[in-house]
Here is the input.
Amino acid sequence: RQHEGLRRVKRAWVIPPISVSENHKRIPHLLVQIKSDKQQPGGVIYSIKGPGVDEEPLGMFSIDKFTGKVFLNAMLDREENDRFRLKAFALDLGGVTLEDPTDLEIIVVDQNDNRPLFRQDVFTGHVVEGTGPGTCVMTVDATDADDPDTDNAALRYSILEQGAAGMFSINATTGEICTARPGLDRETVGVYNLTVQAADMSGDGLTTTATAVIYLEDINDNPPEFTKEEFSMEVEEQAAGVDVGKVFVHDKDLAGSPNWLAKFTILEGDPEGAFAIRTDPYTNDGVLSVAKVGAGQLGDHGGGPMARLTRGSSRQPLDHEVRDRFELTVSVQNEQPLEPGAPASPRALATVRVRVRDVNEAPIFRENPRRVSVLEGAPPGTPVTTYTASDPDTRQLQTLTYALLYDPADWLQLDPHAGIVRTKRELLHPSAFLQGGWYIALVLARDDAEPPLSATGTLSIEILEVNDHAPLLQPPAGVVCGRPGRGGSLLLGATDDDRPPHGAPFHFQLSPQHPQLARNWSITRFNVTHAVLAVLVELPEGPYSLPLLLRDSGTPPQERQQLLNFSVCHCGRDGTCEDSVLAAATAGAGITLGALVIILGSILLLLAAGAQGCPAQLRHPLGPPQAAQQPLRHRGLHQRGGDGTQCPPSPGPPSPVGLTVPPLSPQGLEVADSDPSVPPYDTALIYDYEGSGSVASPLSSIVSSLTDEDQDYDYLSEWGPRFRRLADLYG
Here is the structure.
């Protein structure tokens, strides 16, 4: 039973919680006295341990070790420590534990020693202007450090100050602020500053205040208005893309917002689209400017975007002489549409009067460039055109003068007062100054104002081609076999100094004056610039001269009768020339040694025949002598002997050089002498070089390499006095 008694806790040793008010100022203060039932001779020793004693905060509590009285030694703060849990011990004088440790709990009782605190000094809210009552804007809230289970922390909210209107109310318990009345107008009051209060003890205790700032958000309930009904400004004529002036507006809505930004339109007075108007984004005023020439002004005029673009794209510069003033009707509105029910503006329209100032303007070539045509070869002094400018300054007396600013070939002359352009020299093709047949010159027109202004006009002169050149036969380089068929053909070519369409196609034909030529020769077209000469009968070897007629395709066509000089060679079985060296030499370019020998031989034969009074037998393109007995209407076809009698044709074999000539008659000689277009057939044949290129390959298989530079003509001086001249030329 004694053991069971030791395990029971005595009532005196069980200590109930002890309450003590915070901020207790009477120190030390007796809290409680503990007592052990284990009384020992000599007494009991008491002690306490725990926070506030031997743990932080140290020294708050103490105990009388002999009496067991527990004292408060310092002021308590419930907000720092709302209770302390200690352990109490009872020992004998020898330090032996008499009782098990018991709990000692000290509760700190709250006092209303803390004011409420708002979570922030300034609360911010927004509400759209015009909002009706009952719209909640924001919530303010505060805290209290006191015991939340007591009235010390029971808060109530109120609005201490918001102005006379009383537009807002606050929920006393939650702190929510809502609109209380209609009539919120940002343009009247844009910001509301409310002083709100929080009080503990359910509104009767400690208080604190904060600020609630409520901003009214703008709506487009105010249209823009012109500051006055009329504006006046002026601008110089010919100006483009420059600002003329401003029209001023006022809008009560929030500056910089779409509800404030103005948009201007020119409604009347500018059908040509001469002006444009835009908004200054900083001041919101309208900036009137002269539209750029040729640029459409979308959004600046009435009548729809397409109509405005069409009108602006054909606009002419401002011209004082055409129109010296404009009276524009301009409207203004916001980028954003007005709120329903917003009042219309009485000043949504304004009149803008613009005066166009007169300035000196440069002359204008109404036709620029001027295109004219002149026939090539026109003689100097031929009128080309009258190229004048006009002076836009019709209200100013000014005189225009003209000068040639650019005339690269110095072909033209210009009357400085009348602007008449004439040819100064003959205009001919070809010229390095022509571009595709056009000659470009620049004419300068200048007025006599101070300072003078000028303009440049482009004069494009087409030099019309005239068919003033006949085709020119290009001698072929090669020989032809005197046998029909294979090898018996020759490619002919021609050139013409005229430009299309007065040149090719060329027409080649045998001389119509000698129809007998068609017995031995034929000409067929190869292309527009070449033809093929073919042998029809077998011909003897040697040099030949064939009269041809060449005609171009111009209007009117030009034709020229020319001699074709070539050689007929001895043909082999395969149609090639066997004696190719001689043939190449006789048909080559220039007077080579072979040609010279033939010419000298012909001269000797003619001299010998002349001593007998009759001409030598010369080979004719018609072939054998019996084929050339018909009278021909050409120089050299008839001839008298030295004694005045007609010489009969020689019965002997033909000479290797020249052509067969029948007896000549005085009538034939007269007709031939009066024909300036054809050289005499009874003269030495003239050979020339056809050039380095050919549209056809050489017909000869062997090309002669003999040239004048290769030959040694010194032996001519040994041939006697008759060859001294040749020796001087070629030796």
